[in-house]
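Hi U.,

Before I forget, here's the chain from the pilot set. I'm dumping it here mostly so it's searchable later in email.
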Amino acid sequence: MDRLKIGISACFLHPDAQRSVFAFKTLQYIEQSMAHWVMSAGALPVMIPSPEGDTARGDVGLDDYAQWLDGLVMHGGADVWPGSYGEEPLQPHWSGDRVRDEYEIALVKAFSAADKPVFGICRGLQLINVAFGGTLYQDISTQQPGALVHRDGQIYDNNFHTLDIVPGSRLSRLLPDASSYKINSIHHQGIKDLAPGFAVEARCPDDGMIEAIRLGGNDAGRPWVAAVQWHPEFHKPEQGVIDDAPILNDFLAAARATRS
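Structure:
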């Protein structure tokens, strides 16, 4: 079988003297669940390492990966640095990861320029919104005090809420007969100003927070870029959550189409 090759953006662990192993080294990694989610549909996950850093050598760049791979998934993880969308951190612990932002923004641009589909998950949605000119709430509970609790560190991916899908959106066509619109919620940041050219495909019904976006909405002729705020790779059927398979399959169909 000629399997699709799907790039996954790397998470970063920067040098930290308090860490018991590799304390003075930069680590790049992906979560097991993310790789397994991509593999669930028969695709091959490939972590894309950043070519930058104090050990950089050679001439391999992100454009090389964009040409070789069939699509890109933007991983979850650390906060987005507020400077990436023109703001100062409201609190020091919301400073995010500037190094990762710069790497991932360049990654999104490389794959979009190569006309390869890009799909974002959680931080991936936020990073995509910023990469295309949008802004974020640095902390939902601080800046939107009436909002639902979107992140509970004690129960983590067992924190759930329901979803309102925008009628007529592509997402509504992917999930027309869903028996449940329950999703997990593991984020304290979220979209404030939507990036130009994007359409909202789903919101949280309790507070209106944006939960899914797509570049160009249903318009043809735009790069395939879409994202969700929840983590489909954490979903288990016994939790009564939505079946995310149609979303993954739609992304992979777009990746397959770029080959022709």
